[in-house]
Amino acid sequence: MRWDLWEPEYGRILREFRFSRSKDAAASRELETLLARHPRGLTGEVGWRRVEDLLRGHEVLVVGAGPGAVPHPRELWGPGRAREGRSIAADGATHACLEVGFVPDLISTDLDGSVEEEIEANARGSLVVIHAHADNREALARWVPRFPGPLVGSVPGMPGRWSFNVGGFTDGDRAIHWAEEAKARRVILAGFDFRMVRGKFPGHLWIKRRKLARARALIDALWQRGDVPVDLYTKGGTIPWPGVSGERTEEATFTRRPTRPPAGRSRRPPRRGAPRSG
Fold it and tell me: Would you tell me how many other CB atoms lie within 10 Å of the CB of residue 272?
């Protein structure tokens, strides 16, 4: 997705969550500076080309950090086809991948998950895409220099020389946007649960619920466009993405259809100081 197509959705996210465009931009610049200094930092163009080459034409397993079974690629595709598949871990889901015995091809992270394990996976061959936003500047400064392998930057706004942006809001749905933009053959989601929300205080729970709703809406929009089939992995087999829930989710603005908040959904702002992880 081109930035000019994603920008209206980004504007909506800023308004809905009361995020700061200028603070996002400041974090993006900081990430670009860190990547420019990193011995294995990749420019946005080179990094995106690597992502695209990895995913194009392949079935892609995207692993989320929620509850649910995570298959080993050999289990999912069979021993003869396992190497043809590709895997992406969404931040803390890196732990689940390593636990069942495989290193993900890609990691989508804003550095609020199991970063030590992401560093380990990076050393073992994972290409790591680090996302900048207003609330993770300290994490960027702390962790980016510690990654030993190739890194590329992802930003919420307009990309610069050391970053790219093809759409997406959370670590998980960003990975699905990459697969769609790279023209993957199919996306299979594992470890995704849009109903279970954990948080330390009410403001955090509210924002997490809204973030999960927005991520679901974005995945719905990708599925509705129909460019890449999206399925959900279960122990009983895979089911088409709409089977995850019988209820409709609000549509993302770039579908160019009217949107309306679900009845009874609170629109109150998050409590001041609520963390923004994504």
Answer: 7
State pLDDT tens for residues 13-61.
999 999 999 999 999 999 999 999 999 999 999 999 999 999 999 999 9
- Cα dihedral 104, 105, 106, 112, rounded to 10, equals 20
The sign of the CA dihedral 91, 195, 21, 269 is negative
> CATH number of the domain at 3-255, please?
3.90.1480
The Cβ of residue 268 has, within 10 Å, a number of other Cβ atoms equal to 7
pTM for the predicted model, two decimal places: 0.85
DSSP of 221-256, one letter per residue?
A: HHHHHTSS-EEEEETTEEEEGGGG-SS--PPPGGG-
Q: What is the pLDDT of residues 146-202, one digit of tens each?
A: 999 999 999 999 999 999 999 999 999 999 999 999 999 999 999 987 765 554 444
- What are the structural domain ranges in the chain? 3-255
On whether the CB atoms of residues 58 and 184 are closer than 8 A, the answer is yes
- Distance between alpha carbon 239 and the CA centroid of its chain, in Å? 21
